[in-house]
Amino acid sequence: MTDNRVDVAPGEPPRESVSEQDIWTDFLIYTVGLSLAAILTVTSFWVANTSLLWAPGVPAGLAVLAIAQMGVHVVFFLHITTGPDSSNNILALAFGLLIAILVCAGSLVIMANLNANMAEPQMMEMLRRL
Amino acid sequence: MNVSVGIANSSEGRLVDASESGPAPKRTVVGYGFWIFLLSDVVMFSALFAAFAVLAKATAGGPTASQLFDQRNVAVETAVLLLSSYTCGLMSLAIGVRRYSGVVLAAVATFILGAVFLTLELREFHTMIALGATPQRSAFLSAFFTLVGCHGIHITVGLIWLILMLVQLAMWGFRPVVVRRFLCFALFWHALDIIWVMIFTAVYLMGVVR
User: Fold this and answer.
1) How far apart are CA B76 and CA A41, in angstroms?
2) Does B76 lie at the interface with A, CB-CB under 8 angstroms?
3) What is the predicted ipTM?
4) Is A16's pLDDT higher than 60?
């Protein structure tokens, strides 16, 4: 496939031909992905409910687990790889993620800033009486 | 996969650069275009996530996340959707080897699991609304119903799409156009599962931790 330099569509494993052996390999890839995703999901639910862990660190831990699981889905289910035939897919994904992160982080920062600068209700009342 | 191979082999395995080998096979173009659409969908969801994250504590004296969410229900929903993503992957494999019975079996399994997920979600919404936790109650609940409801609408569209694909498969067999549409469906379904990972973490689990 790399000899021809033909890009691979997202979601399809890069294959020249489909043989019986390949099917088993692909089946194994999906099954490994399912197992990893299941392990990460179970861990997430455990982390959210246990009292063994340091409570302030739990949200960060959950975020890490979620990002790891999304990575597992992208690699094992969507077959997005770092190979040269997949670079267009990776670039599109990177751009989409950039926008998503900007939107989420930007909203949170701006709204937290507005909240911090917001006058207290008593202060507003005082200002009105001036 | 056979389709792309047929076209790829026509350029005679020479070492040619992407620009020299002519236009990309239709399968790649269609898959890539759909991938771009999915990423735009992810950007839309990120806006809904941002709204939810900002409004998560704006309960206006109404019910809070930890009072409303039933974690066992969410765990079952997550398991069901993950399994349906897996059977959807197996469906792609069956399409790769053009095995009709395998495709139908995996598609039916995917459909049933997706329908179970949707039923559980609607039941959860129904319970919440019966408790007075409607979208009008607080900004938190408005954001919650918009975000999770939008994902639910996507799942509904996916289920309808899957039925249409089974009809097309029965009518036309493994035509290139049908195979391409199945590829797009698989992408759509896997992407919805990825968004659900974000939802169950950011909305349900973090809501309970808070």
Assistant:
1) 11
2) no
3) 0.83
4) no
